[in-house]
Write a structure and sequence with these properties.
Elements lengths: L1 E4 L6 H4 L4 E3 L14 E6 L5 E7 L5 E7 L7 H17 L5 E6 L8 E6 L2 E6 L2 H18 L3 E6 L3 H4 L5 E6 L5 E6 L2 E6 L13 H5 L9 E5 L5 H8 L4 E6 L2 H14 L4 E4 L2 H10 L4 E6 L11 H18 E11 L6 H15 L3 E7 L18 E7 L2
Parallel strand pairs: 1-3, 8-9, 13-14, 13-16, 14-15, 16-17
Antiparallel strand pairs: 2-5, 3-4, 4-5, 6-7, 7-8, 9-10, 11-12, 17-19, 18-19
Length: about 400
C-alpha cells in the first residue's frame, strides 16, 4: 500500500475526525497512483493517521475509511454496511429508507436507498467504483433484494473521471416501486426520478406538519411527486395545491394522491413566476412549503443561490395569512445554517413581516451526520410562523 504524507500543520482537522484530505494538503502524490487506489495517510513526522482511497486528479485527494491499520476488504465493508442496517432497525425504520449515507456511515462515496425489495445504489467516487462488485455482493447477502439499480448519473462522477450511467444489475424492473412512508403510499420511479427517486431525508420534517396544517389552505412549492402535499392533506389541510416545473412529476404526484384517496391539486408551473402571480392576485394561504432543489451546487454559486432563496421566501411570506406557517428548506450544503437563517431574516424584512422561528430542523436520522464533517449536515428546514 502506498503512503501519502501531509504537509506541516495540515493534520489537525483530519486528526479531529474529518475524512477528507485535499490535494494541496499533501507533500506529493505518487506518480504511479491510480484513481481509487487504497493508500495510507501519515502526518509530516510520519505518524500514521489512517487508510483510505486516493484520486490523484481531484481536489479531495484522499477519503479516509479507517483510523486503524486494518484490512480494507470484504469483511471491512460487511461490518460497515451491517452497522448501517442495524442503526436503521434500531431507529424503527420500516422497509424503505436510506440504507447507507456515505461519510455518515463510514463509507465515503457510497449511497444506498432501500425501496421495499429494491435497492438503488450510487457510486460517487473512483474508490467506490473499484469496490462496487464487492459491495453489491454484500448488499445481496444482507438484504436479499429482488432488484438492484445503479443510479450513477450524478454529475459529481464526472469530477472523479467516471462515466454517467443508469442500469439494472440484479433482477428486472420498469422503474416503478411502491413504498410506504408514515402511513402514505408512493409510487416511485427509481430509474428516472430525481436523485434515486424519492427524498427520504425530509421524512421527519414532513411529520412536523402534524400540528400545523389542520384547516389551513396549503401551497407546496417544488412539490415533486407530492410527499409534502400528501402529508399536509393527511393532517387535515383544508385545501392542498402543489406546484412543480416538471409535468411528469406533477402527474406522478396526482397519481400518488389518488393511490391514497387524498385530496390535493397539482399543476405545472415555474415556482418563481407562480409566487409573483399569487402575490399580485392577493392570494392567501395558511401554510406554504418551500422545498427547492439545491440552488448552490458549488461554493462559487452561493451568492446567486441566496438571491434565489430570498426571492421565494419573501414571496411566500407575503402570501401567508397572519399566523400562517412557512416550512422553508435548503438542501445546498454550501449554504450553512447561519447563512440560511440570515437569508430568512432579510426575506422577512423585505416582506414587511414579523416572523418567529418555531424550530430549525435537519435531515432525517437515516442520514446520520459525521460530527467532524459539517458537509454531511446539508439539509436545513426552518419552521416559521408569521405574526398576526
Amino acid at each position: 500500500m502506498k503512503t501519502v504524507t501531509l504537509k506541516k500543520r495540515e493534520a489537525r482537522r483530519i486528526l479531529r475526525g474529518h475524512p477528507w484530505v485535499f490535494s494541496n494538503e499533501l507533500l506529493d502524490i505518487p506518480k504511479d497512483a491510480s484513481p481509487g487506489e487504497l493508500v495510507e495517510v501519515t502526518d509530516f513526522s510520519g505518524q500514521f493517521i489512517g487508510r483510505g482511497y486516493l484520486n490523484p486528479h481531484t481536489l479531495i485527494a484522499v477519503r479516509i475509511l479507517t483510523r486503524r491499520r486494518e484490512e480494507i476488504d470484504e469483511a471491512f465493508f460487511l461490518r460497515r454496511i451491517t452497522a448501517a442496517r442495524d442503526l436503521r432497525t434500531l431507529l424503527g425504520y420500516g422497509e424503505s429508507y436510506r440504507a447507507v449515507f456515505s461519510e455518515g456511515d463510514g463509507i465515503p462515496g457510497l449511497i444506498v436507498d432501500k425501496y421495499a425489495d429494491t435497492l438503488v445504489v450510487q457510486s460517487l467516487t473512483a474508490g467506490i467504483e473499484r469496490l462496487l462488485d464487492m459491495i453489491i455482493t454484500i448488499l445481496q447477502r444482507l438484504y436479499a433484494p429482488r432488484v438492484i439499480v445503479l443510479r450513477n448519473d450524478g454529475t459529481s462522477r464526472e469530477l472523479e473521471g467516471l462515466p454517467l450511467e443508469t442500469r439494472v444489475v440484479l433482477g428486472d424492473t420498469d422503474g416503478m416501486v411502491t413504498i410506504e412512508e408514515s402511513g402514505i403510499r408512493y409510487a416511485v420511479d427509481v430509474l428516472k426520478g430525481q436523485k434515486t427517486g424519492f427524498f427520504f431525508d425530509q421524512r421527519e420534517n414532513r411529520l412536523a406538519l402534524r400540528d400545523l396544517v389542520n384547516g389551513r389552505r396549503t401551497l407546496d412549492c417544488f412539490c415533486y411527486i407530492g410527499a409534502w402535499s400528501l402529508t399536509a392533506a393527511r393532517y387535515g389541510a383544508s385545501e392542498v395545491i402543489g406546484i412543480d416545473s416538471s409535468e411528469k412529476a406533477v402527474q406522478q404526484a396526482a397519481n400518488n394522491a389518488a393511490l391514497n384517496g387524498l385530496s390535493a391539486h397539482f399543476r405545472t408551473a415555474d415556482v418563481f413566476a407562480e409566487l409573483r402571480s399569487l402575490e399580485k392576485q392577493k392570494a392567501r394561504f395558511g401554510c406554504v412549503i418551500l422545498d427547492p432543489p439545491a440552488f448552490a451546487k458549488s461554493r462559487a454559486k452561493v451568492r446567486e443561490a441566496i438571491k434565489g432563496y430570498k426571492e421565494i421566501n419573501l414571496r411566500a411570506m407575503k402570501i401567508l395569512e397572519p399566523g400562517g406557517v412557512l416550512a422553508s428548506c435548503s438542501c445546498s450544503h454550501h449554504v450553512e445554517t447561519d447563512l440560511f437563517r440570515e437569508m430568512l431574516i432579510d426575506a422577512a424584512h423585505s416582506a414587511g413581516r414579523t416572523v418567529r422561528l418555531l424550530e430549525m430542523r435537519s435531515q432525517s436520522r437515516d442520514h446520520p451526520m459525521l460530527l467532524a464533517a459539517r458537509e454531511t449536515q446539508y439539509l436545513k428546514c426552518a419552521v416559521l410562523i408569521i405574526d398576526p
